[in-house]
TrEMBL record:
InterPro entries named among the record's database cross-references: Class_I_gatase-like, DJ-1/PfpI, INH-QAR
PANTHER family assigned to the protein according to its UniProt record, in alphabetical order: ARAC-FAMILY TRANSCRIPTIONAL REGULATOR, DJ-1_PFPI DOMAIN-CONTAINING PROTEIN
This protein's name: DJ-1/PfpI family protein
Positions of the DJ-1/PfpI domain: 4-173
Amino acid sequence: MPRSLAILMFDDVEVLDACGPFEVFSVANRITVRDGGEPAFDVVLVGVDSEPVRARGGMRIAVDTTIEDTRRFDVVLVPGGVVDEVPPGAVAWIENQSASTELTASVCTGAFLLADAGVLDDRPVTTHWEDIEELRQKWPNLDVREDVRFLDHGDVATSAGISAGLDLALHLVGRLVSADVAKRTARQMQYEWSGGN
């Protein structure tokens, strides 16, 4: 059975924060199917409403379902972007999902939404280098780390900005599927990935 994996979508989402991991999981699925198996992930784009989101730079992206959908996801990934105006309903959805997910993860300023939802605790977290100080100021109890691509605590993971989401997604493929599939996914994408943090 593929793991159900939700990517939260909202207006002014950073394109690569959302679409980079989507591509990683999509390519990993192609590899597992090519090997004669099932897709490893069932990736669903979850919107605040059913309208396409307008990502940063103006790219329009359709969603598959909305935060009103009651299904539970194995993995929830929250990308960054302009998160100041993300509706409270989306934050409540993150909080609700995190109670039962195998993993709740963020890319870039998605960490702000995880903090808003009460998902982050005393374990180290990270975000985009430009937003490190703001994250520390808004949540002084967080242990915010710089100069790391991602941090994975098993049930919660955060990554630095934009392209670091690719590293986190490849790491998750390695963790949830296999190291071999992660390496082959990176190679298929022609992405120089060290396999580590």
